[in-house]
Each structure stands twice: as C-alpha cells, then as structure tokens.
Write a structure and sequence with these properties.
The chain is of the alpha+beta class. It folds into 2 domains: about 160 residues, Beta Barrel (OB fold (Dihydrolipoamide Acetyltransferase, E2P)), CATH 2.40.50.90; about 100 residues, OB fold (Dihydrolipoamide Acetyltransferase, E2P) (Beta Barrel), CATH 2.40.50.
Length: about 270
C-alpha cells in the first residue's frame, strides 16, 4: 500500500472527514534555499535569508527538543539523533520550500515544507524514521493526512521515538498520571463517556466526574469548524479516540482541540 493511499484511508477514518485535496501534492511551491546549519530536529538556519526570514521551522512536525539554553528545560530523548538525521538530509543541498497555510510564525521563522531535488520530502523522512511526530495547527493543515499515515507506520514499527516510553501514547486513565504531565505535548487515547455542548463550547469527557477526569474541549468557533467538515463532535460519545495536543490542568487534565486533525477515531 502506498503512503498516499494509506494517508487517504486514515483521513477517512479520522473523524469521518472527507478526503479533500489536502495532501502533499496540494502544497504551494515556493523558492529554493540552502541550509547553513541545523538548530534541532525541526528547525534550520538559512545560508541566505528567504522571504525576509533567516530560519525555517519545518511545519507539521515536532522533533525531540534540545535544551538550547532554556532554563529548566530538559533535553528530550533522541534529540541529538533527530538533529543529526536532519543535518544529513538537508545540509549542502538546494531545497525547495513549499507552503500549506500560514507562512511565518510569531518568531518570524518561515513555516515551510522542504523537498530535495530528488523529490525527497524532508518532513516525510523525519516521520518515516521515527524522529518526529505530527504537530499540526489550525492555520496549517495541508498534508497532515499524509503525515499522520507516516507517523502511524513508524509507531507501529516502533522506530525511533516510538520505541521509547517517553513518547508513548497515554491512556485517559489514570488521571493522576496525566495530571503530572501537564505542560507537555501528549498523545492520549480513551473512550468518550459523554459529549455535551454548553453555550456553544463542546466538552468530551472521559470519566464520570467532569471536575477531575480527562476532557477534550472545543471552543464554539472550533466546534463550528468541525461541523463545517461534516463532523458533529457530540457523536463521538461512546467512541474510542486519540487526541494530540498540549496537556493542561483545568478541572482535571485537559486538551483544548483547535482543529479536526487533532482527534482520530480509533473504533467506530
């Protein structure tokens, strides 16, 4: 099965979303650039500024993080290996930039996909080899289905980060364990026990006590975005789902979803 076909199938499964033209082939091509150095597994420095920026953040993925001078910020496992792989993939090679949404972040870095002259998709290689996970945003959703498929294959094969407990998918229970992980980016699986809409905002609860159990929240405008995609999040009640996002503490551990690709339906 090709990666593109697998991506299409996965996209259909993820919340029942229609397989619209959001694949790698739909990225908008941009200029070419040469990399001067690699900061970590998902950030590079350009030899010459492009479109007014000196760095590129590889959009759509998150690699293990290095400390990079940040106080009380520990290096994540395999961060050095992820950086080394990205160096091998990009250094000294002319790369084509392409875009699938917002093209700059708040730090002024370009948010781009990178391709080598032979067509190698850098984000795809990092995901295939298990040296990054999918990290999508509501204003940059193109090719997320393709990336989810590549991540899924690497995770199934336990490549790279997926062979380590540090990056394992967490269960919605026990709640105490999740609460200790507040402030970190996590993949969490569980069964939605209840789905309610209150003043336009949707709450997906994973336990009997919403004041303490794990919850996914969707602000009113996000719930409308789900509806526009043909999905009623209230219909997720009783379903096993996986969500990815930053874990917070508010009436128990919570992830605030901002776009449909953050949530995958595991079983009907």
């Amino acid at each position: 099965m090709t990666a593109r076909l697998l991506a299409t199938l996965l996209f259909v499964v993820c919340l029942g979303l229609p397989a619209q033209g959001l694949g790698q082939s739909d990225l908008m091509p941009g200029p070419t650039a040469t990399i001067a150095s690699v900061v970590d597994g998902d950030t590079v420095v350009l030899k010459t500024p492009v479109l007014g920026a000196s760095q590129i953040r590889l959009v759509g993925i998150q690699a293990p993080k290095l400390t990079l001078g940040r106080k009380n910020f520990p290096t994540w496992p395999l961060a050095a290996a992820a950086k080394s792989l990205l160096e091998a993939l990009v250094n000294g090679k002319p790369l084509t930039l392409s875009f699938g949404g917002a093209n700059k972040d708040r730090h002024g870095r370009l948010l781009a996909h990178l391709h080598r002259p032979d067509g190698t998709w850098i984000q795809g290689e990092m995901l295939k080899r298990g040296m990054a996970g999918v990290y999508s945003f509501p204003d940059n959703r193109t090719a997320v289905a393709d990336m989810l498929a590549l991540e899924q294959a690497a995770r199934k094969a336990k490549r790279g980060i997926w062979g380590l407990r540090y990056y394992a998918i967490r269960g919605a229970d026990p709640v105490k364990e999740l609460s200790r992980l507040a402030g970190s980016f996590q993949l969490i699986e569980g069964r939605v026990t209840d789905a309610v809409r209150i003043k336009g905002q949707v709450y997906l609860n994973f336990g009997q006590d919403w004041r303490s159990d794990f919850t996914i929240t969707l602000k009113a405008k996000v719930a409308r975005q789900f509806a526009k995609a043909g999905v009623d999040p209230l219909n997720l009640k009783g379903r096993m789902v996986r969500v990815r996002g930053w874990l917070k503490k508010y009436n128990g551990p919570m992830v605030e979803a901002s776009h449909p690709e953050q949530i995958e339906v595991i079983t009907p």
